[in-house]
Amino acid sequence: MKTILKSTLLLLCSVGLFTACSDDNDSNPTLGQPTTFVLNTPAYASLPVNLATSTELPFTWSSPDYGFPVEAEFQLEASIDGNFTVSTEEAEADESVIPNYVILPASFTGGNGTIDAAKLAKAVNAMGNWESEDDIPESVTLTVRASATTKGASKIYSNTVNIQVVPTADIAPAFPEFIYEIGNESGWATAHALRSPNLDGIYTGFYWLDGGFKFKPNENDWNGDWGQDPNGTYGNLVVDGEEDCNDAGKSFPDQAQAAGFFQIKVDLNEMTWAITPITSISIIGGFNDWAGDVEMTYNKENGCWEVTTNEVSGEYKFRANHDWGINWGGTEAELTQDGANLNSDGGTHTYKLYLSYEGKHHVVIE
């Protein structure tokens, strides 16, 4: 009798334990780790979508199987060649590379979302890297995929689908590599080159200025030169009816800067100009834990910043205005913005830093 009673109690305890474990699993389920989900092919996929006249491109997808209902966040991506290796964001950060896919900025929950046609059109042109309207193809095949992210799980991607789109004709204008500043500092006799390394219409140069100046497309003639718009905002450029930039005797006398060394910027996309005073150039490096500057002096006659010092040894760089916003490194023969650290073997040297434009900045060490 005792044996039967003990067996019955043991069975009841086992049933209770099993029920408790089952209830615990139901209330605390394990998050699954799916590897993909399904992006549906839209009905319009076989027809070219004109990005110039469309507003949105809709897509639908199934939810990834996480083992139980989970709210995920979805984004859409489109590639011009079927590869997803260099995004448009990465290309903006490193203008030497050409993107092959775009991550569209909108995010969605649920099983559907849209691509903004205008944003996609801009990305298609960036990925196509077409130089003129004549280069634009009649249609482009885009590969589209969706991504899903949720807390506690890795980002996963859907299958890909192909759609046909007609690119817009919004191609950036072609710009030359150089334009030129000329002004009172040289008696209007010497043109100084400003360079656009990416041929994007944004030009930069570093020169001594003294009073008024203008810009011109060609080094040896004045055809199509640009100057300050007397009827617009200070810093706006025009071709016709222009005044000298930075001229205290013209329309903006209170804005004019005194003679000095400047960073000069011109944006031909926006038709604007600006100058930033360079009040100091210095050497900074590991020799003082990157915490202090060896000051240089501008030699106007030789057109260089110079200093003779025995303080510099090991890694170092040059910077302007005691700030890292404008700095140069790389090699002695070619200094570039944000270039690699230079290296000195120590000892007493004279450093002569010649600044003009990217690709020509250099230092002579004696």
Poorly predicted runs of 5 or more residues: 1-25
Helical proportion? Answer: 10-25%
- In total, how many beta strands? 26
Strand and helix order: HEEEHEEHEEEEEEEEEEEEEEEEEEEEE
- Whole-number mean pLDDT: 88
Which structural class do you get from the secondary structure elements? mainly beta
Strand content: 35-45%
Distance between the termini: 108 Å
The number of helical runs is 3
- The rough form would be described as globular
Radius of gyration over all CA atoms, rounded? 32 Å
- Biggest β-sheet description: 6 strands, mixed
Features:
366 residues; mainly beta; 6-stranded mixed sheet; 6-stranded antiparallel sheet; 26 strands; disordered N terminus
Summed up:
By secondary structure, the protein is mainly beta. The protein is 12% helix and 36% strand.
Structure description:
Helix content is 12%, strand content 36%. It has 3 helices and 26 strands. It is globular. Mean pLDDT is 88; it is low at 1-25.
Task: Set out the fold topology.
Layout: H1 2-27, E1 49-50, E2 56-60, E3 73-79, H2 88-93, E4 101-108, E5 112-116, H3 117-128, E6 140-149, E7 156-157, E8 161-166, E9 178-183, E10 192-195, E11 202-209, E12 213-216, E13 227-228, E14 237-238, E15 260-267, E16 272-277, E17 281-285, E18 294-295, E19 297-299, E20 304-309, E21 314-320, E22 323-330, E23 335-337, E24 342-344, E25 349-354, E26 362-365
Parallel strand pairs: 1-8
Antiparallel strand pairs: 2-5, 3-4, 3-6, 6-7, 6-8, 9-10, 9-12, 11-15, 13-14, 15-16, 17-18, 17-21, 19-20, 20-25, 21-22, 21-24, 22-23, 25-26
